[in-house]
Amino acid sequence: MIERIKKSLQTKLKTLLVLLVTVVLYNGWEPSLGIFPTGFYDFTFNHYGAVDILTFSLIMIIAYKNGAFRKFFDIFRWKNLLFILFFIIGGIVFIALAHKLYFQMTSALVAFPEHGVDVANSLARTPFWIHSLDLFVIGPICEELIFREYLYRLFDKKWLACFVSVVVFAWIHTGFTYSFFFYLPMSLVVTLAYHRRKAIGESIILHSSINLINNYLPYLLNFLVP
């Protein structure tokens, strides 16, 4: 009994360490956090693309070594592909309806998510290929590793892991502001997708698809419908 508890604690401590390292690699070199000296941030800003790819590579190596992608290729089975497609379509509809309700219930002054402004400002300073890579590849993979794969491993009760994942993902993006409820629907959809089989590949594809649709669909519609 004691040995089992000890082993469980060791596993969770290792997961927590991996989680923290991944968080620092993914977001620790952002100037707004102020973790490192100013000179470090000047360097990362001037070499954003190289630093982005380097840290992402380290995150992927750590994830692979810790078995995060053990179910990844299962997504290519028809059953799982249909599940992903269902969640993409259903998730987008649910998120759109939730956002419509959100904008009806909040004033214009607080309706636009603060995180959206930060992201827009950040992406405006980087080349198109870099911020596209961040939005559709690096961001979804890293955030799914952090908020789903590793966070889930810290909890024995998976319903609790699901709840914490939903709340923390939305909170990290917005803080406890009105905008928290803007991100909550997406967080719920992606977390439920992961919760089904604990297969990170499915939630990564869903997360990336939602980012893609949310960012480019309005422009496409404006182009097609003058």
Tell me the number of helical segments per DSSP (H or I, 4 or more residues long): 10
Structural class: mainly alpha
The termini sit apart by 68 Å
Mean pLDDT: 83
Indicate the overall shape: globular
Output the radius of gyration.
18 Å
The tally of domains stands at: 1
Quote the beta fraction. Answer: under 5%
Element pattern in H and E: HHHHHHHHHH
Low-confidence stretches: none
Question: Could you tell me the number of beta strands?
Answer: 0
User: How would a textbook summarize the main sheet?
Assistant: none
Helix fraction, binned, reads: over 70%
Regarding quaternary structure, how should these chains be classified? Answer: single chain
Membrane topology: Multi-pass membrane protein
Domain CAAX prenyl protease 2/Lysostaphin resistance protein A-like: 128-213
InterPro entries: Rce1/LyrA-like_dom (IPR003675)
Transmembrane segments: 12-29, 49-69, 81-103, 159-184, 204-225
Q: What does the secondary structure layout of this molecule look like, with pairings?
A:
Elements: H1 2-27, H2 38-46, H3 48-65, H4 78-105, H5 108-111, H6 114-124, H7 128-153, H8 158-174, H9 180-197, H10 200-224
Helix pairs in contact: 1-3, 1-7, 3-7, 4-9, 4-10, 7-8, 7-10, 8-9, 9-10
Provide a concise account of the structure shown:
With 226 residues, the protein is mainly alpha-helical.
